Amino acid sequence: MRALRRWTTVLVVVAGLAMLALLLWGWARRNPQDVPWAPLDLGQPVGMFTGRKLTALTQDRPQCLGLLDRAGIRYTALPARSDGTQCGYDDAVRFTVGGARAIGYRPATLGVSCPVAASLALWEWDAVQPAARDLLGSEVVAVDHLGSYNCRRISGRSTSDWSEHARANAVDITGFRLNDGRRISVLRDWKDQGAKGQFLRRVRDRACDLFATTLSPDYNAAHADHFHLDQAYRGPMGWRACR
Fold first, then answer.
1. For residue 51, how far is the Cα from the chain centroid?
2. What ranges make up the beta strands (E) of 65-221?
3. Smallest Cα–Cα separation from 162: which of 56, 64, 89?
4. Which residue, among 42, 62, 43, has the nearest Cα to 53 in the 3D structure?
5. Least confident interval from 7-11, 123-127, 150-154, 225-229
6. Under DSSP, is residue 162 helix (H, G, I), strand (E, B) or coil?
7. Rounded CA separation 62/42 (Å)
8. Hey, where are the domains in the chain?
């Protein structure tokens, strides 16, 4: 009798584990953005591992360009550039008009690494436009920026590590232009307690889910007028910065 009860218990446990495995498998099939091994798809909702998958694109240029193509993002691939041993890029793109994206960049000459471009597109779809519609009753038509590529070290100090700007793997965002003519400025509106400030803080928070590094006016005085967004690769489970 004891042996029968023992085997019954074993069978119940095994059946329970099998059911749990089946449920987890089904959940993973329905939520690929939340499992680390599922391929990245820019058409999927942003999930727990989306940001890390975007950062990992720094190691796979063909995959990154393929993702842009499949998502309907129009771009021009920029010629490779080398400025010494620490500066340059071979995966930079420039957004072009049309396709799945609606937001322009001012100046329009912005060129960024492919992973940053993919992240900016997701940021537009997942954060910027929804926040603008929800909080401002309008849509963003253009983003103001300070550029991307700049062959320099962090903070310009000669002893600092090289900046992600040195590889066009970062972009500095200064503001947003709405289709009703209003302009939202990081410098002017960050501390605003109304809709403009709420919008800026919401899109900053969502950027933290997508970029390896997100720095805002909350970080230091050097970022009082812009968001610094980059895709610094620090390993598969490397640290991420959100300030």
1. 6
2. 73-77, 81-82, 88-89, 92-99, 104-106, 112-113, 140-147, 170-178, 183-185, 213-215
3. 89
4. 42
5. 7-11
6. strand
7. 15
8. 1-30, 40-242
- Token pair for 129: 């436009």
Q: Which amino acid is at 148?
A: S
Residue 27 CB: number of other CB atoms within 10 A? 11
Helix (H) or strand (E) holding 117: helix 114-123
Q: In the block, which residue shows the tokens 């490397």?
A: 238
- Distance, in Å, from the CA atom of 70 to the CA atom of 62, rounded to the nearest integer, reads 12
Q: List, for residues 137-161, the tens digit of each pLDDT value.
A: 999 999 999 999 999 999 878 888 9
Tell me, what DSSP letter sits at residue 38? Answer: S
Cα–Cα distance, 100 to 22 (Å, whole number): 36
Helices 61-70 and 114-123: angle between axes, nearest 10 degrees: 30
CA distance 144 to 172: 9
